[in-house]
Amino acid sequence: MQAEHEGGNHMADPYPKYARLRERGAVHRVRTPFGGDAYLITRYAEARAALNDPRLSKHPKNAPAFLREAGLVTGDAGPLGVNMLSCDPPDHTRLRRVIGKAFTARRVLALRPRIQEITDDLLAALPAGEEVDLIEGFAFPLPITVISEMLGVPVSDRDRFRTWSRDLISTASAPEVRQRREAAATALTGYLSGLVAERRERMDRELASEAQPDLISALIVAADRHGELDETELLGELMLLLVAGHETTVNLIGNGTLALLRAPDVLGALVADPGLVPAAVEELLRYDGPVERATLRTAVEDVDVDGVTVPSGSLVVVALNCADRDPARFDRPDELDLARPDNQHLAFGHGPHFCLGAPLARLEGTIAFTSLLGRFPGIRLACPPERLQWRSQSAMMILRGLETLPVILGTVN
Ligand code: HEM
């Protein structure tokens, strides 16, 4: 096993390099941008096992010192504060339960008419036959509007969240990036505290708290009436939901549309039969998922991965997109196949931290692709694929997505 350095054109096409790594072994010691090494897990079976392994902790207190020195972890808080994604059971179980009720398949299905309405409004505002940036015009505003409404934060502030969110998830260690990350954490926490205080006041006045359907109110009730979480956790949960609720789905729509534009047969099949869209969403998640690598874990004991000892204290990174192209699990993994059987991809993770928002993301993806292709069946790329801009790797250890996606919105197939 040797140290691996990333570079070259990794963001444009990470898959050839991932294939080479996966062939060489299930786990590799790699250099991270934060000044220390990590163990990168590349094969499906080992990735799935790692995501469900209690010896790999999510708690910042166990993180290696170099992450602390890089400012990515402080005390009990990860980059998005104290929340369910940055802790282990029993705190994880408690914090997930508080929010879990809002994300059941049934609750999410009830959002369908509103998500459809937001989608239709966004698409109606796009000029048919002309060039647009699909990220700016559609892929970003759809999920941020949905999650803002669910939480009960003003949608008019969405450009501010976008900037804060981008700064917060940047993992580069350059001093100016670190400063921006810290400033964004302070600004977003201050903003959310203000909203919580306002909502508390309103709830006291109206005494109608339980009737408020938004998640901020639900969290306040859980904290103030049932003592299920403290104030730091309340803000951390909100921050996580706001960021996780849009930074990922934007990439499902962006990466997914690009994959379809590069596979005209598949695109044609979907235009002809929109009933295939839910299967397409799963296949697009597997083929070029929004979360390239799972969030960071730390081994709290020596862990054997396919004969390699990952020593206690090591940082472990599970390469979800690499595992989802493992030929030992998926036949012809580099092909987009709408009829792929048993498509148990890892795009939403696995185990206790399996994506809480998966039913919402699936619904948003299904509505987005059905409506986009229904209205603009002749959609095509407005630039050669090699000129597309991906969000910079130094800022994106975890997510994979396009900065812009220029398309021409043809209405005729
Ligand atoms: C966790 C992917 C959309 C909320 C995760 C994880 C992945 C993931 C891979 C696990 C990370 C890990 O184990 O390190 C995705 C993808 C999405 C998406 C691919 C879109 C296509 C959403 C949405 C929400 C959301 C819309 C809604 C608010 C969460 C939360 C967690 C999570 C709260 C933490 C769960 C826990 O720690 O128990 N997501 N996500 N996600 N996701 Fe998503």
From TrEMBL:
Keyword Metal-binding attached: yes
Keywords linked to the UniProt accession = Heme, Iron, Metal-binding, Monooxygenase, Oxidoreductase
A Pfam family that this protein carries is p450
Tagged with keyword Nucleus:
no
Q: Family per UniProt?
A: Belongs to the cytochrome P450 family.
Indicate what this protein is called per its UniProt record: Cytochrome P450
According to its UniProt entry, this protein's organism is Nonomuraea maheshkhaliensis
